[in-house]
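ok so I'm stuck.
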Amino acid sequence: MRQLVREVRALTHGPRPWCAGAVVLAGRGPVIAVEEAAGWAVRYTAYDEETDSGVELPPGLRTPMRTGTPFDLASLTKLFTTVAAVQQLERGALRLDACAAAYVPELTAAARHGITVRHLLTHTSGLRPELPLYACPDAPARTAALRAEAPLTEPGGTYVYSDLNLLLLQQVLERITGRTLDVLVRDGITRPLGMTATAFGRRPDAAATEDQRTPWAKADRGPLRGEVHDENAWALGGVAGHAGLFSTARDLAVFCRTLLCGGSYGRARILGADHVELMLAAPGLGFGVDQEWFMGELAGRGAAGHTGFTGTSLVLDRATDTFLVLLANTVHPRRRPPDNGPRARAATRLARAAAAPTPARRLESPGE
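replied:
not stuck anymore, here's the structure
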């Protein structure tokens, strides 16, 4: 695993590094084999359009990356929304093949086209990848636009990854439970698992993200740190089914271990093993399965995981009871065309090391 650490450190070097800073955490069974931080949580004050580079802080004024630095999880938030939905499936309050409009009649497009909960969780609704909700004048207009959005293709057919699926699922969950998504995640996932560093809302101590300005971004917000990066999640108040959570590598390790252990961690249980299997087994619900583009050599044997636009990712390999969390601020100081090579290479390092586990620290669990 030493090579994994060296490669992650190298990602933060150079005049235009893959990321300003990163935290990598890998484990097998109940132990952590690797937990390292590299680079900077805050390296730049802004992005300079003329030089196409970041305006660097003097070294003494930069914020070093720490293993406990919180990150804007971006689309890793979708995994928590998925777990919240599957908890409702387990309780019988939600049915996979029910139309989403059966729970929220105001979802007029879903009713007209027969978009089901399963379609939302498997990205087969036919909805386009995103909708510019940030451009709507107010909250009612955003809600109306989302509910009226018709699919581009017949639901149940082609896989098209879409943030809209999780935004609609959020509306379903909030209607059937009478609670907001942040409360569902807190009470159903993070609190019982002792994930005290994971929550929606502002995190001033988080790794910096982007100097967010048009034309490369969709809104003019300036340098961002501790405020949700995703423009739609920001327009929705920071709590959204597709983005908005902040967390740390250690908290995500707990989340990974819980799923690898069939939904239990220490004395806490958030799901039964059969419902965890429903999420993680191909084709997966909410989780991507065997995605070589970011899982490297872990793909092909049932690995499950997800990525986030800000530079976050996690992978679970049930075949070897291992997991990998890689958190990086790749959009600091501005977004670039995605390069998933480092994610895939890190996962490959884990796959190759799985046969020779490294002596390491035990991951503590609630009640221990």
